[in-house]
Structures are given as structure tokens and as C-alpha cells.
Amino acid sequence: MPAKKDNAPKKPNAAKIVEDKTFGMKNKKGSTAKKTIAHIQSQAASAKTPEQKRKEAEKAQREKEKAASEAAKRETADLFKPVQVQKVPFGVDPKTVVCIFYKQGNCEKGKRCKFSHDLAVERRGEKKNLYQDTREGGEEEERKKDDMADWDEDKLRQVVLSKHGNPKTTTEK
Known about the structure:
- The structure is a single chain.
- With about 170 residues, the protein is an all-alpha fold.
- The chain contains five helices and no strands.
- The chain has helices spanning about 30-45, 50-80, 100-105, 135-145, 155-165.
- It is rod-shaped and about 140 Å long.
């Protein structure tokens, strides 16, 4: 015949129960009560099993190593990275030029960058120069060759009328 099962309630694991040893003391006034509460809470926080302490120490060690390796990577990148400066020709708005560092994915200035971080800016057309004649050169050459000495009387009258207005249509008497 098998042994009877023990029907007595089992005590829960000590690790699962967190006993509040400061119960009833939290509402006390005075600095000595507050100091006692702080002392008891610090003891409860440090009362861990050796396995928990070992795991926390390993985790802290891994975080330190990770931070140190990242710092070393950043330092080597800063040391071996050539200093580059993006230049813009005189008279060109820097916001119409895409930041070369942003294109590479490492612009450190962010919103303070004077260059554009909009990749669509690169695809825009070039601005038109208002001060340059974009017409074909043949017409301009013709104008330079056309001199007053070669004009006949009809052409001369036509130019004078276009400059001074038609005297027959003026209202002055």
C-alpha cells in the first residue's frame, strides 16, 4: 500500500515571500523612525541569495564591457575619421544642398545643420539665373552686327517711333 499523501499545507518558498518589516512604521513621524525604515529597507534589498548576487554581478560586468567596447569604437572612429568640411560656392543657399554627412548617415548636428536633410532637394532642378540672358546666341550676335550706319530711312523712323512714341498719337499741343 502506497504512503498517504501529506495533506498538511506546505510552507511557500522563502524567496517568493517578501515580508514588509516596516509595516506600521511608515506613518511614524521623526527622523529616527525614518532612519530605521531606510535601514530595514536597505537590508531587505541586499538580502539576496548568492545565485542572485552572482547573476547581478555578471550582468553588471557585461554592461561595463559593452560600454567600454562602444567607447573604444567611438574613439577609434573619431581618431581615424578625416575631418571633412562641406563647402558651398558663394551666393548659393546651403539649404539647397544636401548634407553629405546626412547622406552617409552620420550627421551629428541634426537640426542645427545649415545644410538640407531632405533628399528630395537633390532631385530639384537648378535655379534659374535672373541676371543671365538664356536666349540663343544667334539673335544677340545679329543685334551687335546691326548698326545705325547700315539702317535705311524706314528702319530709322521705326526705331525713333519705338523709342519716343508716335508723335501723331500724343495728347500734347
